Amino acid sequence: MRYRALLLSSGGALGCLIACTTTSADRSSAPPPIFGGQGATVAKETPLPTDSAGSKPRTGPCAAPSPPSDVALLDDFEDGDAHLFRGFERDGWWWVATDPTEGAKVFPESGKFAPDRLPAGEATKDNVFAAHFKASGQRDWGATWGVGLQWVRQGIRCPLNASAFAGLRFRAKGPGTVTVNLQMPETQAAQSGGTCTSGCYDFHHKVFFLTDRWADYVLPWTKLQQGGWGAEVRFDPARLVGLAFAVKTKDVPIDFWVDDVAFVTAREIDALALADRGQPPAAAANGAR
Predict the structure, then answer these.
(1) Beta 242-247 vs 176-183: how paired, if at all?
(2) pLDDT tens for residues 174-208?
(3) What is the SS3 string spanning 207-229?
(4) In this structure, what is the dihedral angle of CA atoms 43, 181, 198, 28, given to the nearest 10 degrees?
(5) Judging by beta carbons within 10 Å of its beta carbon (0-12, 13-18, 19+), is residue 121 exposed, middle or buried?
(6) How far is the C-alpha of 221 from the C-alpha of 224, rounded, in Å?
(7) What is the pLDDT at residue 63?
(8) Which terminus of the chain is more solvent-facing, meaning fewer CB atoms within 10 Å of its CB: N or C?
(9) Which tens digits make up the pLDDT trace of 100-125?
(10) Distance CA 203, CA 93 (A)
(11) Mind listing the domains of the chain with CATH numbers?
């Protein structure tokens, strides 16, 4: 909640003609999390000439990027529901998925996502809720908590365009090891609303090691990687269909919190980096480009 006033703005855009990404019917389903690492290159021009290596050029109303979103805040969870923080022509729902291991537990349960009240002593007047994730007993691929990212107008859905931003920021508390991944149609399987037909789910991602205290974490687009085993796709922030927090089997049981998830600009990333190196806020702001 404390970031909301700094992160909100509005904008307008033209609509596309047919649905091109995950619909609300897909909210409670998700692929297993992906880990590993070959470095990715952020697309400087949009759109890419092809969906992925060896595929045909994109066609249809979602072939070109939707208008850039200028609403930075994705969710501070203060509304207490499973819906993405509402922005102009933007939509998305939080979902939960776990592997089929008998006896495995996940919180919130699949299809029942809801923010949790912060423990006594951590909540404030303006910050009461956060996402609370727990998993135990998984022995196949683990557990994932994510949210769809869609640009919507008149019922038509296309990938969200986050090219106005240079990365992602969130607050979290563990301890635990969590992988944050960003999903594009070219890495999301067709049956889950993407366009991938082979080597799917090799999402762009970064691993974070959470401490047992609340801290801010930043994910620049330039730090994203693919696992290198699936469809090789250049990362394009103009074509996002999902964001997820995933946990591998070796990292369960786990109990962690996430709050104040937002896109950040290059200027903000530079300022945060300076502040993290011990520069006072004024110096960090002056040094940001």
Answers:
(1) antiparallel
(2) 999 999 999 999 999 988 888 999 999 999 999 99
(3) EEEECCCCEEEEEEHHHCEECCC
(4) -130
(5) exposed
(6) 6
(7) 72
(8) C
(9) 999 999 999 999 999 999 998 999 99
(10) 19
(11) 4-287 (2.60.120.430)
